[in-house]
Amino acid sequence: MTEALVAELLEVGYAGTTIERIAQRAGVAKTTVYRRWGSLAQLVVDAFADTAGAQVPLPDTGSLEGDLRELGRASIAMLRMPHLRAVFDVVVREAIHDPAARSALTEFFAARIANGAAIVERAVARGEAAEGTDPAEVIRMVGAPYYARAYITGEPLDPALADRTAAVIALAAREGLLLR
Fold this sequence. Notes:
Helix content is 76%, strand content 0%. It is an all-alpha fold.
């Protein structure tokens, strides 16, 4: 069902996507889709939860800045993939007023932050980040510029942004500006 949903979102956008079209594309009755998901929004949220469950591989370059740069580049690459972005865009929009979408988005970011914490913990152990550095805050700050550009300013997402962001956040962590 996810493939049919994504194909519809890419072809006609959220405004043009209907349960009927998704069901037809998936080769099932629309009543089957309605019975399982109840609404297009819930189908999108479930598809997001399925695709968002996969973690981005955690880099280990041997330096905090290198790890943050690679993590940032992977995040930017994900945001530039049309099939992932189509679903992500809908969930972000729906999260404003739909508790299920908000919950899915919150869980997505919580998992990404928890996964990325190991990067910061390794950096503290190597002496590259101040003792007491808040791993969650570091990872949040690394992602913030990408999502701000993707959903607020519309500016381009490119690897140079990941490089600049990693350098600034690594410096802040080293200087003890991101303590718990």
